[in-house]
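Appendix B. Raw example, untouched.
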Amino acid sequence: MDGVGTLAIRRLHLPSYVNRTACADNEAKGDNVMGVSGEGKCVYYPADPAPSRWERVNDGSCEASADPLRAKWPTQQACEAASKQAGFVCVQSPTPGRQFCSSAPPGGEYGPECPSPATNLTCVKARFSSLAACQAQCFVSAG
């Protein structure tokens, strides 16, 4: 008698040349194939949805995204216009001597202005209109 966990459905065989036809349709659709069950059925999870909106990344550029929380703009042009308007901030991290440039979030709510009443919080030291201007004046420590 087989023990618990040895049912055919719980056995997973990695994709191979021998069982390649079991997942051919799923692979063609772009699904993420994990293998073949003991019953010979394809074990997979659906592919991520295609990006339909745009999000801003830390360097101020825009990338296609399917994440509804970050992808706030319907077009690349709208995202780039929002990025240009928001600008960049020089951020002081809680670690002494560490600061970096980041694209300012929509609405500008990155954190409190420096000096912050609580010394262990991230705060904004300065605001800039371009990434180049931020990098020129915002010291980034090497280590």
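End of appendix B.
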